[in-house]
Design a protein that fits this description.
The chain has 45 helices and 35 strands. It is 44% helix and 11% strand. InterPro entries: Toll_tir_struct_dom_sf (IPR035897).
């Protein structure tokens, strides 16, 4: 029967009220048809009264009964109906909710006025409706108003919550037990008389199976006799997961006859609400219990049962028709009004809805429903004509102009999802317009293939030229800059995947940059290419989405094959006999490295989906493919999973190469390997080759950003990646050149600005998640502040009670650098767990120099070399130590003089740049007071001759200074030094040069751990007055300034030259060292105490000595950090472990060769000119270990006197004294 219009309803209401006073058996209306004149209706030849089902709409049912009986003249019988589901079955000929087989026809009940949308759309009913066929009841219209059902909360519970916590209980999010405790304000199960409740199985079986399917909550169900039912506590209460472990904490929710049991259980599960749900014995008990509890309940309106209790409907998530069709009932139910009509052709929906499949659907996003069944799509949205309510988002208004369902832009295929495809014979051109394919499109495709071959060939040639020629720094800068440019372009192409409404002209810039990034997707069937031609794959061949994705996935192997073809062509062209694998690997690796983001980004496309208003998901780049893990999508997931292994394997190989293999190959000097992996390491400074792996990992993470669900999450992840990247670049400076590090940070800063501005236009769909992230970072900021403050407090007390440095060595680099290094090593060994400050190891920031002295040092030790007071930085350190009361000691050189008042008065003229300390808060007056303070600082004199013994005593005195006088008795360690004298590995050093002796001791200390476990003896310092041991097999000569004038050193060298097995290597330990010159030998003639024979032999020994390449070991140098000195000691150890020639043999060969030359020249009548014999070409070096000396003499005009690393080579032997000339 048709429903009644809204304006007529008040009149019927008044008429009904007027009938209330009429006695039973009389009529209501004055012109009513008498009861004995009324008739039955006839259905299929069976006569029966008109049957009405009466439920919540009792008033409307009563009015209709009056009209049907007194105006129309029918006999009317009213049947009570417990629920809408029962009502649907009654009207279909079923005696309640029973199987179809038990239903009879014709039905005894014919008209009902109560229908709830949740029951009408129930999957069980829809299935039964299909079984019933034409016997099923029919929807004829609406009675003119809608009702609401669901979870309600009564006033007392809301009031209690507001008073105690301010929590609003009428919102589902505030009922989540993970965040709040709504059970504190609601009635619990203990307050309900369990005898007034029915068992779960009496009314609640229908929704149990559906609950298990959509939630997977197996603990909330049980199977009895093969029937799935709700698992209830005490057989009465179904407990939600949020309170199942503690039933006493559950909110009691009482319904009746199983009403909404299905909806309430799902809402409790999905929204984590701590509910216990039960059924009252009957409707009256249901009303009685909820009136007592005044808490939460299932209710509906219009209904008067609880209007006096200030009930409020709990707001659930907005109605989701897609979920409702799947049986997911977590959202609110919606009841839509229909305008009354006498036939279906006259049925129309109100504004905001449209008629579909016999009932009104809510107008989806992207559509406009004006009423009267008119549905129009907004620009940028699409639905098919046969399914107008199935709305898709086109994500581009140029594809979908809007209008009636089934409308696409010109030339686009309306059968494709969201107008994605152009019609056959068309391809996408400018502004997304589909244009007819032309002949040029086919030619363009061939041109692109040719260009790919040409580009790979060009890259191969450039890399080959790079390998053959010596790279200039300018060329490397250009190459690094181009690599950074391509990387940032590819990052911007990833940024285009974010759902951000970029405006012009930046949107066009992103399109242009995507082409520059060599994104091979520009050849896809649905994307634009270059601005001159718009050829596409769709004009050449029709590929399915799976075929197109497979083509892209094979792009990497195809590029590798192209590189292989180019490499083979090169080998054939040049006629090379070897395969030259390094050239091929270098080319393939460079392609992977440069285009890593683009190639990886193509492969993760099956994991990126777009959501549409109809609840369906499609791939972002393949919009015809649904994200359902079936069919095409499943095939693409499998292909993508295998294809993604290629970049992952490349990343793993690069990591293995840089981290494990590269150090081993460098140690073996494998130049071919270094050349093959040059694409990874050449652009980074030595020691930072790992940066190439770091950048690859960064690129991989950038590619994964679009996989996040929300745009805000994508922006957040990318910002974190780039910020971390910027910090790493600023801190480690990985690029080989400073300008490249600066460029990298500038580009990263620009990207961050773009991301921040893009985030402004993002409409975040999940503000709650955004707030969680904001709070996390706010907490991180607060923790960082607290951590910094705590660190400062800790440092304050640490500096007060335990300083960072036990000693600070203030020294003049060129006069005491080696001694400072020796003292640092000795002090740290003597006092384990402490640190001694020395600038070349511990000073990274010059501005912190004085703070190290004043705040982080326990004892300030000044190495008082003669000119230390002329060094402004050293004086500044002294001023700071005095001002901060740091314990101080002086270690004075023999020639050091403490400053007097005359010196202090002239100090500004002696050190003119002392005023530069003013910028650090140090005035001239502070300097003068510090110089006076030196007179009272306790000190210790440096021994005139440094040896292991005197050094040990000196360090002991420094350590015990201020506590007791240094002991003059040798300790066990000092005595162990004496036992080392005369070993088989003497280190020869000028004993009068304290810096040289200190350098020798440092080198000896670093060499000993390297030689342990070998067959070589351990080095020891040769003491003055002792002879070189006859058993000596190895020796080091410490070359310092003026060392060859030392009488002691002369004696040792002559002794070593007579030993049959003693091999010697020179070690340069001072930058001021100079090779012996003619002037030196002339001076030696007059000053040396050697006899003529000894002097001639001495000159020959020096010449033989420098046939070995000298080891450079200069502790005085500012760049000589501890690690650098260890590396140089390793080099010295390697030289010592190699095969060496004894010094005696070298001297003998030199004497033999000299005599041979003199004899040959005399036989030829050539005057023997020592100048011709000793004349040497600067930069020429004697080759050591040569087996063919005669051929070498024939090809050389003259033998060089010293090796190539000497600073001066004899140019004119006539300048030599006669005695020395006679040596040759």
């Amino acid at each position: 029967m048709p429903g009644m219009g809204g304006p007529i309803m008040p009149m019927f209401a008044l008429a009904l009220l007027g009938c209330l006073g009429i006695s039973l058996g009389s009529t209501c209306l004055p012109d009513a048809i008498p009861e004995d004149q009324r008739q039955n209706i006839s259905m299929n030849g069976i006569s029966m009264p008109l049957g009405l089902t009466v439920g919540a709409s009792s008033a409307i049912s009563e009015m209709y009964a009056i009209l049907a009986s007194e105006i129309l003249g029918y006999n009317v019988v009213q049947y009570p109906s417990p629920s809408t589901m029962a009502n649907l079955h009654y009207l279909s000929g079923c005696d309640g909710v029973v199987p179809v087989e038990e239903c009879t026809w014709p039905a005894l009940r014919h008209v009902g006025f109560e229908l709830w949308e949740s029951s009408w759309a129930d999957p069980d009913w829809l299935a039964k409706k299909e079984q019933l066929g034409q016997r099923s009841m029919q929807m004829e219209g609406s009675i003119g108003f809608s009702g609401k059902e669901g979870l309600y909360v009564m006033g007392p519970a809301r009031q209690k919550s507001r008073e105690h916590s301010g929590l609003h209980l009428a919102y589902y999010g505030n009922l989540n037990a993970s965040w709040f405790h709504p059970e504190n304000y609601a009635a619990n199960v203990s307050q309900v008389d369990i005898n007034k409740l029915s068992t779960c199985k009496e009314h609640s079986l229908a929704g149990a199976q559906l609950y298990g399917q959509v939630t997977g909550d197996a603990d909330g169900l049980e199977t009895v006799d093969g029937v799935i039912s709700y698992k209830c506590w005490q057989d009465k209460w179904w407990l939600a997961p949020a309170c199942r472990s503690n039933p006493g904490s559950c909110m009691a929710v009482v319904t009746a006859q199983g009403w909404a049991f299905r909806e309430l259980t799902q809402q409790a599960f999905f929204h984590n609400i701590p509910m216990a749900i039960a059924n009252g014995l009957d409707f009256a008990t249901y009303v009685e219990l909820n009136a007592q509890l005044q808490s939460f309940l299932f209710w509906w309106n219009p209904d008067t049962a609880f209007v006096l209790y200030d009930t409020t409907l709990v707001e659930m998530p907005p109605w989701n028709p897609s979920e409702q069709k799947q049986g997911i009932l977590r959202s609110a139910t919606v009841v839509i009004k229909l305008q009354g009509a006498v036939s279906e052709s006259y049925c129309h929906c109100d504004s905001g809805s449209f008629l579909w499949e016999g009932h009104c659907e809510v107008c989806m996003e992207g559509a406009s429903c004006l009423g009267a069944n008119r549905l129009e799509l907004l620009p940028g949205f699409f639905s098919r004509e046969e399914a107008p309510g199935d709305v898709y988002n086109c994500f581009d208004e140029r594809l979908c102009p809007g209008g009636p369902p089934g409308t696409c832009a010109a030339g686009r295929d309306t059968s494709s999802v969201a107008c994605t495809d152009c019609k056959e014979g068309f391809r996408e051109g400018n502004d997304k317009v589909c244009e007819a394919c032309g002949d040029g499109d086919y030619a363009f495709f061939g041109v692109v293939v040719a260009l790919v071959f040409g580009a790979v060939a060009l890259l191969y040639a450039l890399l080959l030229n790079e390998a053959k020629s010596k790279q200039r720094s300018s060329t490397l800068v250009v190459a690094a800059g181009f690599q950074q440019f391509l990387t940032i372009v590819q990052m911007l192409s990833v940024l285009r995947r974010f759902e951000i409404d970029w405006r012009e002209p930046f949107a066009s810039v992103l399109v242009f940059l995507e082409v520059l990034s060599f994104d091979v997707e520009m050849l896809s069937a649905h994307r634009r290419t270059w601005d001159l031609r718009h050829g596409t794959v769709s004009c050449v061949t029709q590929l399915s989405p799976v075929g197109l994705f497979t083509f892209r996935a094979l792009m990497i192997p195809m590029l590798m094959c192209v590189a292989l073809v180019v490499h083979l062509c090169y080998i054939l062209y040049t006629g090379c006999k070897s395969f030259k694998t390094s050239n091929l690997l270098r080319t393939i690796g460079t392609m992977f490295l440069i285009f890593f983001i683009v190639l990886f980004s193509m492969l993760v496309a099956p994991y990126q989906c777009n959501a549409h208003p109809n609840g369906k998901l499609t791939l972002k780049r393949y919009k015809n493919v649904f994200c359902d893990r079936e069919g095409d999508h499943l095939a693409m997931l499998v292909i993508g999973g295998f294809a993604c292994s290629m970049p992952v394997v490349f990343l793993a190989l690069c990591t293995w190469t840089v981290v494990l293999e590269l150090p081993r190959r460098i140690a073996r000097s494998d130049a071919r390997f270094l050349d093959a992996c040059g694409f990874l390491i050449k652009r980074f400074r030595p020691g930072m080759e790992i940066a190439s792996v770091f950048f690859l990992i960064r690129n991989a993470l950038v590619v994964l950003c679009p996989l996040l669900h929300s745009t805000s999450g994508q922006l957040l992840m990318m910002c974190i990646i780039l910020i971390f990247n910027s910090i790493m670049v600023a801190f480690f400076k990985p690029w080989r050149f400073l300008i490249c590090n600066c460029l990298d940070n500038v580009l990263l800063a620009g990207m961050l600005v773009i991301l921040i501005l893009g985030a402004i236009s993002v409409k975040d769909s999940d503000p709650g998640a955004t707030m969680v992230v904001v709070m996390l970072f706010l907490m991180l900021m607060c923790l960082s502040i607290l951590g910094t403050i705590g660190h400062g407090i800790f440092k304050h007390f640490q500096q007060k009670y335990r300083k960072q440095f036990r000693y600070f060595l203030c020294h003049q680099k060129n006069a005491a650098g080696s001694m400072a290094r020796l003292l640092k090593m000795e002090l740290e060994q003597r006092l384990p767990g402490t640190k001694t400050f020395i600038d070349c190891d511990d000073l990274n920031d010059l501005t912190r120099l004085f703070s190290y002295v004043g705040q982080d040092t326990q004892t300030f030790l000044v190495l008082c070399s003669p000119d230390i007071l002329t060094r402004k930085w050293c004086v500044g350190e002294m001023v700071t130590a005095r001002a901060n009361g740091v314990d101080s000691l002086l270690l004075t050189w023999p020639s050091f003089v403490r400053p007097d008042e005359k010196f202090i008065a002239k100090y500004p003229t002696i050190v003119p740049d002392i005023n530069e300390l003013t910028k650090y808060g140090i005035s001239l007056q502070d300097v003068e007071e510090a110089l006076r303070w030196l007179a009272i600082v306790p000190g210790q004199a440096l021994p005139e001759q440094i040896s292991p013994t005197t050094t040990h005593l000196m360090v002991t005195g420094l350590v015990t200074a201020g506590t007791k006088a240094p002991s003059t008795k040798l300790s066990a360690r000092a005595q162990s030094f004496t036992s080392e004298y005369g070993t088989n590995f003497p280190v020869l050093v000028d004993p009068m040069n304290s810096e040289a002796v200190a350098a020798a001791m440092v080198l000896s200390s670093l060499l000993k751990p390297k030689l342990l476990g070998t067959n070589l003896p351990l080095p020891s310092i040769q003491l003055s007055g002792l002879e070189v041991a006859q058993e000596a097999t190895l020796s080091l000569l410490i070359c310092s300034h003026g060392c060859f004038k030392s009488e002691q050193l002369q004696t040792w060298l002559l002794q070593a030259s007579r030993l049959p097995k003693c091999c010697m290597i020179p070690v340069i330990t001072e930058d001021a060292f100079e090779m012996p010159s003619p002037a030196f030998f002339a001076e030696l003639q007059t000053t040396s105490k050697l006899t003529d024979d000894e002097l001639r032999l001495y000159v020959m020994v020096i010449k033989a000595l420098f046939q070995e390449i000298a080891v450079v070991f200069v502790p005085q140098n500012y760049a000589s950090t501890h690690e650098d000195l260890r590396l140089r000691a390793n080099q010295a150890a390697s030289r010592l472990m190699a095969t060496l020639q004894p010094l005696e043999d070298k001297v003998a060969k030199l004497q033999t060769r000299f005599k041979s030359r003199v004899t040959t020249r005399a036989a030829d009548g050539v005057e023997t000119d020592v100048a011709n014999i000793l004349g040497a070409r600067s930069g020429e070096m004697v080759s050591k270990g040569s087996k063919d000396r005669d051929s070498e003499e024939a090809s050389t005009a003259g033998e060089p006197f010293l090796c190539a690393n000497s600073e001066q080579i004899f140019e004119d032997a006539d300048e030599l004294p006669p005695v020395i000339q006679q040596a040759f």
